[in-house]
Amino acid sequence: MNTNESAATSYTTLRGDSVHELEIKRSRFITYLYRVETEAEARNRIAGLRKTHFDARHHCTAFILGPDRMTQRSNDDGEPSGTAGIPMLDALAKRDLPDQSHLSDTLAVVVRYFGGIKLGAGGLVRAYSEAVSSGLDHASLLRRQRLRIFTLPASHALAARYENELRAAGYQIEPTHWEADAALVHIGIPDTPEAAEKLRVHVAALTAGAGELATATTRWVDLI
Predict the structure, then answer these.
(1) Which of 2-6, 84-88, 140-144 has the lowest mean pLDDT?
(2) Model confidence, pTM
(3) How far apart are CA 153 and CA 183, in angstroms?
(4) Integer distance in angstroms from the first to the last C-alpha of the chain?
(5) Which residues pair with 15 in a beta bridge?
(6) What is the pLDDT of residues 59-102, one digit of tens each?
(7) How far apart are CA 91 and CA 81, in angstroms?
(8) DSSP state of 5
């Protein structure tokens, strides 16, 4: 998955794995939430839970992958068609987040132990949707941001000062590359035109117009 070429520059995902259980009309709904980045990773997690809960009647699943959420899958796993996987997927996709980003790289597995009372199609839809929503309520989330890394050539005498002043201004400073006759200061910023222009203005003032920025690469980071 090449996340560097996505249109989205940020999204939200899980900080770590989470488990939450609901009881609805004597049926147990155990929601497992995992942070995953590939479909293979998601399916390995599902396979592992099938072994752990081998005695459960249903292991219903939904997952969304990628900054642009291009991969979305769901499975009712024996429940009536459309009553489990799709409501679970909707609960992931429509999750309201304070920063107005979207939720991705997230797998939900709801393990159901039947309690002897049939819920009906509508009851199942509500139960599986609530199971995932409640699981997310109890999970810890974080935001991922795509950084664009710029390089600023500098003399050995000036490189450390540039690093310190840029860091003090709130920029993320990556490890500097020291060459024989110069240094390359690496600066990470949110991958947006506005942030790039702000950096250019700052560097122009810092270097009295002598500094020339070049783009090196992009990478995703977790914002703590």
Answers:
(1) 2-6
(2) 0.84
(3) 6
(4) 23
(5) none
(6) 999 999 999 999 999 999 999 999 999 999 999 999 988 877 89
(7) 17
(8) G
Chain center to CA of 6: 13
Tell me if 27 sits within 8 A of 127, measured CB to CB: yes
For residue 5, the model assigns a pLDDT of: 61
Q: What is the pLDDT of residue 16?
A: 94
Answer whether residue 12 shows pLDDT above 60: yes
Place of tokens 């810092």: 206
What's CA 177's distance to the chain center, in Å?
A: 30
Report the C-alpha gap between 188 and 167 in whole angstroms: 10
Q: pLDDT tens digits, residue range 31-46?
A: 999 999 999 999 999 9
Are 128 and 84 contacting, i.e. CB atoms less than 8 angstroms apart?
yes
Selection from 91, 99, 62 nearest residue 79 by Cα: 62
- Which residue stretches of the chain are H helix? 39-52, 85-93, 120-137, 156-168, 193-206
Torsion of CA 87, 89, 90, 94, to 10 degrees: 150
Give strand pairing partners of 22. Answer: 29
Dist. CA 157–CA 86, nearest whole Å: 60
Rounded CA separation 158/176 (Å):
12
The residues, any chain, with a CB within 8 Å of residue 153's CB and separated by 6 or more, are: 182, 183, 184, 185, 211, 212, 214
Banded model confidence at residue 1, pLDDT cuts 50, 70, 90: very low
175 token code pair: 């490890």
Q: Which residues pair with 23 in a beta bridge?
A: 28
- Rounded to the nearest 5 degrees, what angle is found at the Cα of 95, between the Cα atoms of 93 and 100? 105
